[in-house]
Amino acid sequence: MPTSPAAPRIAAILVAAGRGIRAGGGLPKQYRRLGGRSVLARSLALFAEHPRIDAVLAVIHADDGDLYAAAAKGVPKLVPPVAGGGTRQASGLAGLRALAPAPPDIVLIHDAARPFTSPALIDRAIDAALARGAAVPGLPVTDTVKIVDGDERVTGTPPRQTLRSVQTPQSFRFGLILQAHERAAAAGVDGLTDDGAVAEWAGNPLYVFEGEATNMKLTGPADFEAAERLFTPPLAALGDVRTGTGFDVHAVTEGDHVWLCGVRIPHERGLSGHSDADVGLHALTDAVLGAIGDGDIGAHFPPSDMRWKGASSDRFLAHAVGLVAARGGAVAHLDVTLLCEAPKIGPHREAMRARIAGIAGIGIERVGVKATTMETLGFVGRREGIAAMASATIRLPWTNPEAS
């Protein structure tokens, strides 16, 4: 009796090695939160949960191991991530080389900053690679496009019907795209901005299949504002408005810097603590936890647990915000007041606001950072420690416990 041919082995590479500075928010854009979950976590899950995908590999920045580990937690089918290169092209090649020892038949290469890809688009990408060898999703261009020179003088108007706006995931037979990338690298060609361009440069026929208008790439702040609205319930559905407060203090010790509200500030002394001793983020974490009535930072991250020795405090605030999201809620506002004689907070205020906003996944206009001295009074006035007071306003879906 004849046997059925084996199904092709299919892998996905998610390119997530960029810094994403245009998006703002204090974190690389792939680690910013949307609806309580990071962009990368959403993108990883899209491919890992697809029944035709066998393995998912992320290409990340060498400094982002902890951020990636948090995003990847609980996601199936992942193989160990690899460090990317200095360009999009170099990162694509790094991912392909990592898969080469056990090569798949088909590989999909996707921008991690596109978290809205549908399962149907993934299916079309796989089918296109199986049929054509090299294919990219594209959309017809509806605006008239002009070609201009260095003086912005129009030099041509290509017909719209011949143009396509290209997206990811781009799909290829594995051997074809790996060979194309290796040839380009050997030739010193390193400015190609997507993998389809690499295949095209190497002389391979490249085809376009139907993309999706909703498959947006998150690039700037406006993109994140629009994306967040997709995950945020209407305010009318979040009628349970709550406020929590937090307070924290850390003693001054030897050192050459302090962490305040997620920003490293050079200073003549440091702060002592089990983690990085960031009083601002600790107070904010307690404020969020207080708003949902879920203990305090010590209950969630006990000092007796060595996992949190020297830990970055952005993890604590992100955890608390995630608990709000898990209840179907949203953070409406965060406010923190730092009490210290030094360092000066003013020069760092906007960086702090941006960092807090990025960790919490909210707009910077929803974050307040203030500072005051103690007029030389008390332990703060004597420069023996730094303290912080914080408040958090959150909105949860309204429930009536008596009706349940």
From TrEMBL:
Region (2-C-methyl-D-erythritol 4-phosphate cytidylyltransferase): 1-241
Metabolic or biological pathway, per its Swiss-Prot or TrEMBL entry: Isoprenoid biosynthesis; isopentenyl diphosphate biosynthesis via DXP pathway; isopentenyl diphosphate from 1-deoxy-D-xylulose 5-phosphate: step 2/6; Isoprenoid biosynthesis; isopentenyl diphosphate biosynthesis via DXP pathway; isopentenyl diphosphate from 1-deoxy-D-xylulose 5-phosphate: step 4/6
CDD domains: CDP-ME_synthetase, MECDP_synthase
Listed transmembrane segments: none
PROSITE patterns documented for this protein: ISPD, ISPF
Region (2-C-methyl-D-erythritol 2,4-cyclodiphosphate synthase): 242-404
Record has Metal-binding as a keyword: yes
Keywords: Isoprene biosynthesis, Lyase, Metal-binding, Multifunctional enzyme, Nucleotidyltransferase, Transferase
Family per similarity comment: Belongs to the IspF family.
Annotated protein name in UniProt: Bifunctional enzyme IspD/IspF
Organism: Labrys wisconsinensis
Name of the gene encoding the protein in the UniProt record: ispDF
